Amino acid sequence: MIVGFLLAAYSVVANDSIQTLGTFLSSNAHRPWWVLWIFAGGILLAVIAYSWWVHGGDPAYGRLEKFPIPEGGISWYHAIPPLALLILTRMGVPVSTTFLVLTVFAVSNLGDMLIKSLAGYVVAFFSALILFRLVFRRATEYFHRTRGATIPGYWVVLQWLSTGFLWSQWLIQDLANIFVYLPRELSFGWFAFGTSVLVGLLGIVFYQFGGTIQKIVTSKTDTTDIRAATIIDFIYGVVLLVFKEWSNMPMSTTWVFLGVLAGREFALSMYLADTSGRATARKVLLDGSKAMAGLVVSVILALGLPWLAMRV
User: How close are the terminal C-alpha atoms of the chain, in Å?
Assistant: First the structure.
C-alpha cells in the first residue's frame, strides 16, 4: 500500500501536474523555483484539506466510490502501473494516469472513463479551436508579434490567478489516481502523511523545472509567453470544471490537455505565417499516438496483472 502510494504520488505529480503547471513554469522560468512551489503547494494543501474535512476523511472528492479497496487488500501487482507510469514519464510520453493507475483496481469502469475522457478531448479541442480562431485571434497575433517585449504587470496577476484556478480543478480530478492506494476514509495521521509526501514531491518537480514532459508544452507555439499561457490555462480549467460537474467518474485530464493544445495549434496555423497545418497535424498525431499507447498499456496491465497474480 505504501509503495503503491509513493510510486503513484511521484509518477502522477511528475507526469500530469506538468500538463497543468507546464505553461506556468515556462512563463515564470526567471523566478526562483521555490516561490512557484510555495504557491502551488499551498493550493494543493488547501484542496486536499477541504475534501478531507467536508467529505468525512475522503481526500478524492468522491471519485473513488466505484473503486473500492480489493477484498484481499493492495497486492504487489497494484504497484506495477505507477511504476510503468514513472518509466513512461522519463521517456517523455504523456500517458493518462487515470487509465494506467485506476483501471487495474476496477477494469469494469474502463468504458465509462474512456467515454468521459473522449468527450473531454473533443470538447477541449473544439473549444480551443473556436476560441483561438474567432475570439482570441487578434490577441494571439499581437502576442506573437510582440514576443520578447515588455509585458504589463497585470498579466502576471492574471496568469497566477488562472493557474491557481486550473491547478485546483486538476487536483479535484486527479487526486483519486494517488489516494486510491490508501484507506477511503483517512485518519489525520494518513492525511498528514499523504499531503506531506505530495507537497515534497511537487517541490522536486519544480526544482527540476518539469522534467521531460515539459517538452510537450514548450514545443507548442508561444506557450512561454505569459499572456498566451494565461488563456490556455483558463480554457483548460473551465473544461475541467464542466466535466467535474458531469459525474464523479474519473477522467483523463491528459486527454483534455492534449485537446486544448491541439485545437489551439490548428487555430494558430490558420492565420500565423510561420506555422503550417501540416506541421501542426504531425505534432497533434504524435501526441495522440503517445496517449493511445498509454491507453493500450493500461488495458494490458489491467487485464494481465490480475491473471498473472493468480498464477504466481
Answer: 19
Q: What is the DSSP string of 55-74?
A: TTS-TTTTTTTTSPPPTT-S
HSE-up of residue 232 (Cα within 13 Å, Cβ side): 33
Per-residue model confidence as pLDDT tens digits over 259-302:
888 888 888 887 765 565 677 777 777 777 777 777 777 778 77
Closest CA to 299 of 92, 14, 83, 96: 96
Please give the average per-residue pLDDT across 146-151, as a whole number: 77
Q: CA 143, 145, 149, 152: dihedral to nearest 10 degrees?
A: -30
Q: What is the mean predicted confidence (pLDDT) over 157-166?
A: 91
Cα-based angle 306, 191, 70 (whole degrees, multiple of 5): 20
User: DSSP alpha helices (H): ranges in 131-225?
Assistant: 137-145, 154-179, 188-207, 214-218
Rounded Cα gap, residues 164 and 108, in angstroms: 34
